[in-house]
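Exam review. A common question shows you a sequence with its structure tokens and asks you to describe the fold in words. Practice with the pair below. Do the first one on your own.
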Amino acid sequence: MVDTVEVLVDGGKATAGPPLGPALGPKGVNAAQVVAQINEKTKSFAGMKVPVKVLINDDKSFEIKVGT
């Protein structure tokens, strides 16, 4: 099974604070790793709000999709 967390973040400036941190906490993934990857993938969108999906697998691995 895959859990999905959808958020709107500032390009390259996501933080582990709301709305991302509270959404990820109950899922058991490392929020710092998720935030780092989101910022890496969205840095070219600086100054814009970017829709991001975090797909979380049962083994707590995750995949990040930007702009979906």
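Now try the second one, then compare your answer with the model answer below.
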Amino acid sequence: MKLTVQDLNSHYGPAHILFDIGFEVGEGEVVALLGRNGAGKSTTFRSIVGLVAQRSGRIMFEGKDVSAKPTHEIVREGLGYVPEERRIFTDLTVEENLEVGRQPKRPNAPHWTREKLFALFPNLGEMKNRPGGRMSGGEQQMLTIARTLMGNPSLVLLDEPSEGLSPKIVEQMVDAILTMKKEGVSIVVSEQNLHFARLISDRAYIIERGRICFGGTMAELDARPDIRDAHLSL
């Protein structure tokens, strides 16, 4: 398995947020972590990359136990993280933002260049000299993902990539994620948008109130309207 999460528990102060979270991601898979707002999706991602101090459990990445590693070491191992907040440098151009994310080529991981990323996100190639602060939300989301790929990760955590985007940008995001998969990147996507997840994902887990309550293929989830209605309907 590319990523295995076992018995993950996380706290913010005295509040117990995640309860024995467990899931797996295979080589070249796209896996969706589905749930409503506040279900624990973002906390799960932050815990995996070491941004939640109070956590326990086991996180295996490419056969290595990274549970106790700090965030920068986990990223160096090849695990990329795109947070829900579009954290770009607003005063730097698109090209300069990409250079900030550059890392050496990794064995057993796709190698991304600016040219490949401009092919993945043509909008960025058309505005490579534009400051990040003068881009739309969707363009900033593309830039955040592209900058993460400049680190040549073998797995990427995408937190709510379709949130707040126009339908046209969402279509481009679907194409980009499927291209990333074709290039060999394993992906975990946290989403509320079931339709978006269905277009890109091989399998899905549902999280509710910090607990995993479903795991299976997208076809298995489609066959369970009771599960969808109970845990995903607004």
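Model answer, second protein: The longest helix spans residues 167-183. The mean pLDDT is 95. Full marks require stating both points clearly.
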